[in-house]
């Protein structure tokens, strides 16, 4: 069955008709982009990798249901919750107490979604004008830059082949080939890694063909809840930044704030997080890696993200498949990540240019400068068990400065 061109014309420019196999390939591309980060969080915290993949998949599908299938976002494991989840698991000896905190964190999202629904999306738009959102989107890409470099530097030859292949396909590719540069970059990088002896198939041989993830039952402990749930207040700022980044990437600007509405995206993210807590997975969040793929391919149809979600669910119940993908060496992924994270940063620059943000004005220059330095510099603010850092702290600093600095600052 083919997707009608008129349905996709607004979301996939200059593509024409896409058959099912092509849509599946695009979905696989997004699944590969999210895989490394999604499984890293459970590895670092002690949660189950299979459950993390499963909850990322069903969480993404739930998000698309709540947002009317309008936002091309993929939800994966959130890094913001790593520290408190690790502490709770260490203190209580299993993941059950952490699950209760994750469920409540998701409900905090839902409460904030209700508040925004009542006051209107204009409230969020006033908090995040282009002079704030542009630098925040840049920070999203720049703070991830060291991650890409650390992966790539393990073997610059392999990383370079992966990066160069994806770049050449993006520039010189024609037709459908142009839409899957990540797939080609990963394949060529993987072949180079095989030649260099960087691939180990041991984990594939030891994995089963089929098997359900190890789901666990949540427990509600107030001490654990108070350690984990408040992080939702920080991750919500990141969520708004990610949605604005997706909107800017797609060319819809700030349209998603009102249609389907930031209250729906927050609710979708929150309920996906609570659902993850019920099964024993980490909290979910919108993924910058997949936003980078959007910017690179210009394929914006949300159906592709839902296909990627189905791949994640498949990988969770076919351990051998997820094990095979896990054999992709870090330099291969690092080469692609350099391109993807750079794309996100470029979207932030474009946001400021298209909205005519005048950096000759002292007020705008101060706001942008503070956001960039706090975000890229890794500044942290600790309030008891709550740590605000990175993009969240940069975003909060930007919205505060936007409110307190007078419009005519520095003007005679």
From TrEMBL:
Highest rank taxon of the organism: Bacteria
Membrane topology, from the record: Multi-pass membrane protein
Pfam families in UniProt: Xan_ur_permease
Annotated compartments: Cell membrane
UniProt GO molecular function: xanthine transmembrane transporter activity
InterPro entries: NCS2, Xan_ur_permease
Transport is among the record's keywords: yes
4Fe-4S among keywords: no
Sorted UniProt keywords: Cell membrane, Membrane, Transmembrane, Transmembrane helix, Transport
CC per GO annotation: plasma membrane
Transmembrane segments: 23-43, 101-120, 127-149, 155-172, 179-204, 224-250, 299-319, 331-350, 362-379, 386-405
Family in the record: Belongs to the nucleobase:cation symporter-2 (NCS2) (TC 2.A.40) family.
Name this protein carries in UniProt: Uracil permease
Organism expressing this protein natively: Anoxybacter fermentans
